[in-house]
Fold this protein.
Amino acid sequence: MSGAPLLVPQADPGAGYRAHRDEIDAAVARALGSGWYILGAEGRAFETGFAAWLGTPHAVGCGNGTDALALALRALGIGPGAAVATVSHTAVATVAAIEMAGAVPVLIDIDAVHYTMDPAELAEVLAAPPAGLPPVRAVIPVHLYGQAADMDAILPLCRRHGAHVIEDCSQAHGASLGGRRLGTFGDIATFSLYPTKNLGALGDGGVIATADAERAERLAALRQYGWRSHYVSDEVGVNSRLDEVQAAVLSVKLRHLDAGNAARQAIAARYDAALAGTRLLPPARRPGGTHVFHQYVLRAPDRDAMRARMRAAGIGTGVHYPVPVHLQPAYRGRVALGPAGCRRSEEASAEVLSLPMFPELTEAQVATVCAALAAAADR
Ligand SMILES: *Cc1c(COP(=O)(O)O)cnc(C)c1O
């Protein structure tokens, strides 16, 4: 989309840097001056701080959120000869990581209200995987847009069938369910630290959390050639490390994460009020959960026209995601689906619209979005 410059962008990672510039610049200078750039004191400090913030014993940094998922699968012994169930309505990274680990993805549909994994369909896939597929040994629920998948239903199903649970928390840093932080429910949790995420580096990054000391130790080996001591690979690993400069930046950003999430929630409440009484559907909150609004996603039957009207008013919007994974050229006709197909995923992809959402949005910008929303919804 082109045209006049935007009054309000949909995302602005630069604003997240400028808001904490002095602290970040000091942290970067410290990391640069240390003369140690990969897997050192900054990385360890971030891992320790992140684990304490999450409330889990172990965190292991890595290169990005996709690698985090692939490493988690490998650390659980899941690869060739196993199927892994996840959703089609997610970042393509979730599905790419399953194939990176050598496993076969099975994509199941979402529920139409919260856009997360439909437990009823998961139950069917766990009981009987699609024809020709190996058994489902792991499930990756995605906590989409900033709130929980239906863990109260998903966890007992997985336990009953002996399937591991890897929570994809890349859009839900700080969200909770039943008073517990997401990322503490499954066997392993993975977080992308891509710049626009709720906790974002100034480049690529990822972190993996687990309560199990042995798994944490295996993850730390797998991320660096399978080394447990230098130059000796106990098993085949990869190179996926979080560098010291990013770790130093992330330790600063982590201190501001909860306040940033609170700012997102306040902006979401303003958007809710602007949508009240219009024909547009605001995002539903899962009962018992907190939503940290990685994205504020409304639903509009005439989504593309709405988007154009917002653009004309100087408001940037996003679509997460315009094409479900099973319909993308690399996966179409090749990847296994649950028994019901992914009809609700397809319907959502045609109607979802993401409003501007980042903690540094100013009062005036939020007011501009709300006014444009009311006008565009009226047409
Ligand atoms: C961003 C994201 C990822 C991938 O993270 P990268 O750091 O870009 O590799 C995975 N899953 C979800 C749900 C994401 O939003």
Notes: The longest strand covers residues 58-62. The CA atoms of residues 8 and 365 lie 6 Å apart. The pocket of pyridoxal-5'-phosphate is lined by residues 64-66, 90-91, 93-94, 142, 168, 170-171, 192, 194, 204, 206 (CB under 6 Å). The two ends are 21 Å apart (CA to CA).
